[in-house]
Write a structure and sequence with these properties.
The structure holds 2 protein chains of 2 kinds.
Chain A lengths: L6 H13 L2 H4 L16 E6 L4 H16 L3 E6 L19 H9 L17 H12 L5 H10 L3 E4 L1 H7 L16 H8 L4 E5 L1
Parallel strand pairs in A: 1-2, 1-4, 2-3
Chain B lengths: L13 E6 L6 H10 L7 E6 L4 H12 L2 E8 L2 E7 L2
Classes of the chains: A alpha/beta, B alpha+beta.
Chain lengths: 197, 85
Amino acid sequence: MTAPVAERDLLGFLEAAVSETPVEAIQPVVTPETASETPVRQLVIINWSGEFDRVMPTLIMANAAAAMGYQTKVFTTFWGLLPFVKDQKRIVGENFMQKMLTFMQRPGISHLKTSKMNFLGMGPWMMGVLSRKYNIASPKELLEAAEALGVEFMPCQMTMDMFGLKREDMIDGLGEPVGAATVLELMTQPNTASLFI
Amino acid sequence: MTLTEPTSAGTAQVTTLDAKGLKCPMPIVKTAQAIKTIAAGELLEVLTTDPGAVADFAAWSRSTGNSLVDQTIADGVYRFVLRRK
């Protein structure tokens, strides 16, 4: 550049110089579709089990989907509702039978049993040791991550009533209780995947 | 194993996320959180030791629209460079 240049020519020169930097030279490994072409995808999970080996895939899939920009909703029903009771709650319910239920099956995300080889807690204990050894996120960590990513947890109204669970027994991140029709409507929307875990 | 210096021209800010040691799905969970902290056009460099991340970051990029501009491996550490859309 020997000759004096006008300001806009200088800008053009700078832009050209910038475009020759290594940043621009990198060929994109993945060039995604433009936003307008990508429809909003949705993942709906029915979480009906309170066991470690079912709650884990629910939380992992929910986290991955939310991280990928999917609208993610988890319907928690039957035993699947108990992990979403506050960890510090021990016995919940209004009558004797409901109290017995949570006496036998301790609620809370940190107290999951395994479906196989529970052996009075030996199974979950070993799972915990192995998870920590291999740095796998715990159900509690996954639940917190899912809440931070905006995963919507929807409790089943019918199960809440049957277990005698009150809104204040449940974790703060839980949404309003809903019924089967709400979930079916979500599951049949376009670009929606639904899982029954 | 070419390592590009994205900051060399000062055109794009690069932020590094150390996700080494984390297992699925935490690398992409942390990435999804970290990408929100940078401006559009800026680069996020993610370091991970999870071999499953190679397929996962490609899928994540296609789904979210954030380009995967570079990926390398050195000493068992995978490095992904993502540009926020």
